[in-house]
Write a structure and sequence with these properties.
- By secondary structure, the chain is α/β, with parallel strands linked by helices.
- 31% of the residues lie in helices and 29% in strands.
- The strands form four sheets. It has a seven-stranded mixed sheet, sandwiched between helices. A six-stranded mixed sheet has the order 2-6-5-4-1-3. Strands 7-8-9-10-11 form a five-stranded mixed sheet.
- A hairpin with a 2-residue loop joins β8 and β9.
- The N and C termini lie far apart (60 Å).
Length: 403
């Protein structure tokens, strides 16, 4: 059925129309059959199928391969300030519901999963940290930020400042400048914020820390480690600022060794351990080299955590990444005692859960051990997975036992 046309118009292929009907919001440049000329970058655009059927309205990006990001398929929506305020309100209320006491340190907006494409907002107590990877969202950030402050105030939450971490490579693809810094004139004097997660205190550097300053998505996966830690010897690989290691120590581990290649990260990790009066032995080195050294020294652990950076950020590098994941997991399995546990992660959506499980089976064969899966987990619920957008399901966490 033909719909009233409010914005510039694009016509897409049947394949793309089917994806939109299934709920996926991305329209790629090579799936567009017709599009108006001289469009303003970041403008709203109506998307139609080949039979003149309305499919949705979204942000137009003239440089990105994702040429249009659908905001809504409701022909009656009006994309004014009130529309974006509603979307923000829904996102905040969801976090209030699922995070409870963890609402003060969590992800408030998770991009496409909250139907706010290209927008990430993390909360660290009284500071919000923003990442924007969509030209259309960049054009409307003033409206979004105001809605966040207003809606949180209505919930009784005070925000002192918004720090922008707009440094990501995706901004280049959108034709956006890369920068970081405070938004507006009113903000705290320091970019260091103290948060409490799982009863453990951390200093978060929102200016220089990884991502937005802290890996909030592993919040409850760290608790899964803590529940099994009592009385065990533990090795936390790629510890970063020590969060898995500190949870293991908090859980009553017999000993905790924590390894990372970054001297800066280890300094922060040591500071966090001291702040919480937790005993962790920190080591600096390359994880592949150190795991091999430990094997040669015939040292064995009861529990190993592997949470490396993403080995793949594209389909083209998947096979090399799988080789890396297989090697590092096999190395860890070789230095686990029989009955020992391995918590192993991948933070790339290009490594889906079924392929990650296959990799673990290959690693077990390589290490000469057998495994059983204790549990499979994903990101904490403040990083929700949109059922029609596989890209939002990025974090895999398998807890396995050597048997």
């Amino acid at each position: 059925m033909k719909q009233k046309r409010n914005y510039p118009r694009a016509v897409v292929t049947k394949k793309q129309a089917a994806r939109i009907h299934q709920g996926h919001p991305w329209v790629y440049f090579d799936e567009i059959l017709e599009i108006e000329e001289n469009l303003e970058n970041g403008c709203l655009i109506d998307v139609f199928g080949t039979k003149d059927n309305y499919l949705g309205t979204g942000f137009y990006s003239e440089q990105s391969k994702i040429r249009i990001r659908i905001l809504s398929s409701n022909a009656n929506d009006t994309f004014d300030d009130a529309f974006f305020a509603r979307r923000v309100r829904y996102a905040l209320q969801y976090r209030k519901d699922v995070m409870k006491e963890d609402f003060r340190a969590c992800r408030l907006v998770h991009g496409e999963s909250d139907m706010l494409p290209g927008l990430t907002i993390d909360r660290y107590e009284n500071v919000l940290v923003s990442e924007i990877a969509s030209f259309g969202m960049e054009c409307r950030k003033d409206v979004i930020y105001k809605a966040l402050i207003d809606e949180l105030a209505a919930m009784g939450e005070t925000i002192d400042g918004i720090y922008e971490r707009n440094e990501g490579e995706l901004r280049k693809k959108e034709g956006l400048p890369q920068y970081k810094g405070w938004y507006g004139e009113n903000h705290p004097s320091s970019t260091i914020v103290e948060i409490t997660e799982n009863g453990i205190r951390y200093e978060v550097d929102v200016e220089n820390g990884q991502k937005t300053g802290f890996f909030l998505d592993q919040k409850y996966n760290r608790l899964a480690v803590r529940r099994l830690a009592e009385g065990k010897t533990i090795l936390d690989c790629c510890t970063h600022t020590g969060s898995f290691a500190l949870n293991a120590a908090k859980g009553g581990a017999k000993s905790v060794d924590a390894l990372d290649i970054s001297e800066t990260a280890l300094l922060e990790a040591k500071k966090n351990a001291e702040m919480n009066h937790l005993d962790v032995h920190f080591m600096q080195g390359d994880v592949f080299v150190e795991l091999e050294r430990i094997r040669k020294e015939h040292v064995f652990y009861d529990f190993i955590i592997l949470d490396p950076p993403a080995f793949t950020k594209s389909r083209e590098t998947y096979h090399n990444a799988r080789t890396g994941y297989t090697k590092i997991n096999a190395q860890a399995m070789r230095i686990l005692r029989r009955g020992g546990y391995l918590a192993t992660c991948s933070c790339s959506h290009f490594m889906p859960s079924d392929k990650f499980a296959e990799m673990l089976a290959d690693a077990a064969k390589l290490a000469g051990v057998q495994l059983r899966i204790v549990e499979e987990r994903h990101a904490s619920p403040d990083h929700p997975v949109h059922i029609s957008i596989p890209e939002t399901d990025y974090l895999k966490y398998f807890l396995v036992q050597v048997i």
